[in-house]
Write a structure and sequence with these properties.
homodimer, alpha/beta, putative 2-phosphosulfolactate phosphatase, 3-stranded parallel β-sheet
Chain lengths: 204, 204
């Protein structure tokens, strides 16, 4: 693998990250942190709450995984809610011969089903009919999970332990938001320790 | 989870480990180590080569994973070649309410498809109709991989990168041995830094 051509794609099946925002946000054990302005619920990140502001965010798994990927040439943030625009950027990169690495956010340090299924969907769309594309075993396994659940994101979330933990913690409405495929036409990228919109529209 | 009830099950889809043997064995980058008596090929571990002897074994992934599991109450070594006897012991443990943890050997530090598929098969057999059995997301994903490949171990090995690497390195005959379901009716356990046959037949 040529690191100069390496892309890292960070995938959190359940996380909705908006690109521009404010103040302190995050969670520990799924709950908003004392003294913070926002938790981790996508429903809190309204236009009123975040427009024109910078959000400082900390979560149990996702933000650490993103920070760990900062050595890569490009770091994208993908989920079901922005699936198609992210998949389009990845597909263009794959056609140029880029190496794509997917990092799953996980849940409490463990494998999370919805992350892997979302990666499988991205892998399928990014590499379909791309000559010379090869998948490692983990990517092949992720594709199988996507094939199992297909577009039935609700059944996926009913099966996944993280989603069920959120529902039990009172965040069932978040799951509805997270299961809305392509709700947001944005491609967030991680640059200089900030998540911003992808700069070059020509890449999409 | 009650650690007193915890079992660790180590799974290497491709490894055949015989319980009693001799001298130095192992591999680095799939090749026998200079000065060693045996490599990692199951076909070298004949009765003549190992009967009545103790084998000191080192491999890139498997032996380290087994050593890391030594704090558990019981550590079993499972693969397709001894699937049914290991599954029977696990099923008895699951019925007694034991926690089962599966560790995949992997290949060069990476996820290996055949390990996860073998775990999925063990999980299915160990927990079927066991009241109160719950699976975490990784176990659910492993079950999906087993469902995908079913009994067609040859297709699984044709897909898995580790198996293909072994075939390319001249060990295609090993794959035939590793794809032989239930070739060995043994339950190897790891105790006091040795892999031996399970002592108590009443447990099977």
């Amino acid at each position: 693998s040529n690191t100069d051509r390496s892309w890292i794609i960070f995938v959190a099946g359940l996380v909705v990250l908006l690109p521009v925002a404010l103040a302190l946000a995050g969670e520990r054990r799924m709950r908003m942190i004392d003294g913070f302005d926002l938790g981790n619920s996508p429903l809190e990140f309204t236009r009123d709450a975040v427009e024109g502001r910078t959000v400082l965010m900390t979560t149990t798994n996702g933000t650490g995984a993103i920070a760990a990927a900062q050595g890569a040439k490009e770091v994208l943030v993908g989920a079901y809610v922005n699936f198609s625009p992210v998949a389009a950027v990845l597909r263009a990169a794959a056609r140029r011969g880029a190496d794509l690495t997917f990092i799953c956010a996980g849940h409490e340090g463990q494998f999370a089903l919805e992350d892997a299924a979302c990666v499988g969907r991205l892998v399928r769309h990014a590499t379909r009919r791309v000559a010379g594309a090869t998948l490692n075993d983990a990517a092949l396994a992720a594709v199988q999970l996507d094939r199992k659940f297909g577009d039935d994101l609700w059944r996926l979330f009913e099966t996944a332990s993280h989603a069920q933990a959120l529902a039990n913690a009172g965040f069932a409405a978040d799951l509805v938001a997270c299961a809305t495929l392509d709700a947001h036409q944005v491609v967030p990228v991680y640059q200089d320790r900030q998540i911003v919109r992808l700069a070059a529209p020509a890449e999409a």
